[in-house]
Amino acid sequence: MSMELNKKYGLFTAIAMVVGIVIGSGVFFKAEKILTATGGNLPLGILAWIIGGFIMISCAYTFSLMATKYERVNGIVDYAEAAMGKKYGYYVGWFMALIYYPTLTSVLAWVSARYTAVLFGWDITGGECMTISGFFLVASYALNALSPVLAGKFQVTTTVVKLIPLLLMAVVGTVFGLDNGMIVQNFTTSVTEVDPLIAVFTAVVATSFAYEGWIIATSINAELKDSKRNLPLALMVGTFTVMVVYILYYVGLAGAVTNQTLMEGGQEGAKLAFETVFSSLGGTLIFVFVIISCLGTLNGLMLGCTRGIYSISARNQGPNPFMFKQIDNATNMPTNSAVLGLLLSAFWLVYFYGANLTTPWFGFFCFDPSELPIVTIYALYIPIFVVFMKKESDFSVFKRYIMPSLAIFGSLFMMFAACFSHGMAVVAYLAIFGVVMLGGVFFSREREL
Predict the structure, then answer these.
(1) In the chain, how many domains are there?
(2) pLDDT tens track for 298-327
(3) What parts of the sequence cross the membrane (predicted)?
């Protein structure tokens, strides 16, 4: 049996993978927040999408260069280990397993339920929505744990489905808005007065949720033909394509309803936009595609969540590595790791509800888990980029210094913007982050098994 991965993917397949991985629920979920943060100022919102997009592109390009040096490297934990050593790689993995994957997975379960609730006219913060959130969380876990093959097919199907509402609204909504003058009206008028600097900072942090996921695409380099040329190109073209699609969708929404309607109506406003352009029946059908898109993103995150502790245990680190690195013979899944991932996601779903959807349960210790964990990832990238510039003397000045410097600047911008827009919630998050990471110290020693 061969132990080597075949070079089977070409450039266009790689670009499609990047686009399919990155595009998900974020653009639907965060478009309203970006519009609200900018006071209904459409040009400011588009500027935020562009800034967030270029931060993504610069970071993705730098990691793609690392992928050409480390063809067996698979994922952020391994990149961290290759650049900074095993200890740093362990703490990145600990953060991913206990905070990053389960927080985002829980948020996606709620986002999927939120759109379902909107479809049926239910309260998005009530018992119906939270019950559906729990069901989606368990169903996604079951799909990944019981049938990884079926989960993979579901992921491919939803990748195609998720592009339908985006492209239709981008094209048809824009034409519709140019014809009736709605786009001109929305571009030239603001709903409320806002401080442009604060507005852009808040909106850029919101885009981070929509743009997240590109790091996963670097894992295909060992299976990519002429990866030293094609992977950086695929990352650049793919991420740029995502940014353009998001902006066009954002403009398409502006061609359907007024900015004020979207700001006041939230997801009801988005549903109204689809119904305005495509009729009531057509709009409802396309909104179903939006829900399927969200479920596809949830499935992808659950895939990572079920393997969170496993990625640490495979290195003989973490709590009881022998137990958590066991693979089920029938499903080829790390079952114990998957169960823990589900429990962590359920915990963070309860936290998300208590911190963001009702009268705060946790007092000072409340934060938005859909944004701050992602900003933390950008902070963790910075040492990796610095070491890259110091060590990788084989690359040209542009690849070794310019792009990593832009990536570092973009990561710092994202961190500063998060502090600016979230205020004291950042302190609350860092306190919880510190406790979780301190807990990881007790399991950092590599075990002899």
Answers:
(1) 1
(2) 877 787 788 888 888 888 888 888 888 887
(3) 9-29, 44-67, 88-111, 131-152, 159-178, 198-221, 233-257, 277-298, 333-352, 372-389, 401-418, 424-443
pLDDT tens digits, residue range 83-141? 888 899 899 989 989 998 899 889 889 988 988 888 887 877 777 888 999 999 998 88
Domain assignment present for residue 22? The answer is yes
Contact 298, 136 (CB under 8 A): yes
Do 372 and 422 meet the contact criterion of CB atoms below 8 Å apart? yes
Half-sphere exposure of 415 (CA within 13 A, CB side): 15
CB burial string 227-261: b at 16+ within 10 A, e below: beebbbebbbbbbbbbbebbbbbbbbbbbbbbbbb
* Coil, helix or strand at residue 224: strand
Residue 2 pLDDT: 40
Structure tokens at 239: 């991420």
Contacts of 390 (CB under 8 A, 6+ apart): none
**Which domain does 390 fall in, by range?**
11-441
pTM over 0.90: no
Give how far Cα 173 sits from Cα of 185, 279, 421, Å.
14, 12, 31
Cα→Cα distances 252→167, 173, 275, 285, Å: 9, 4, 13, 18
Has residue 238 been placed in a domain?
A: yes
Q: Return the CA Rg of the chain.
A: 21
Average model confidence (pLDDT) across the chain = 83
**Token duo for residue 1:** 């049996």
Of all helices (H) and strands (E), which one includes residue 170?
none
For residue 162, CA distances in Å to 148, 179, 191 come to 21, 26, 30
Give residue-wise pLDDT tens across range 42-55: 899 999 999 999 99
Q: How far apart are CA 422 and CA 317, in angstroms?
A: 34
**Residue 446 in domain:** no
Regions of the chain short of the pLDDT cut 70: 1-9, 13, 17, 21, 24-25, 71-75, 147-156, 158-159, 216-223, 265-269, 331-332, 446-449
Residues 427-444: tens digit of each pLDDT? 999 999 999 999 998 887
- Considering the domain boundaries, does residue 339 fall inside one? yes
Selection from 202, 265, 190 nearest residue 419 by Cα? 202
Q: Rounded CA gap, 329 and 336, in Å?
A: 13
CATH number of 323's domain: 1.20.1740.10
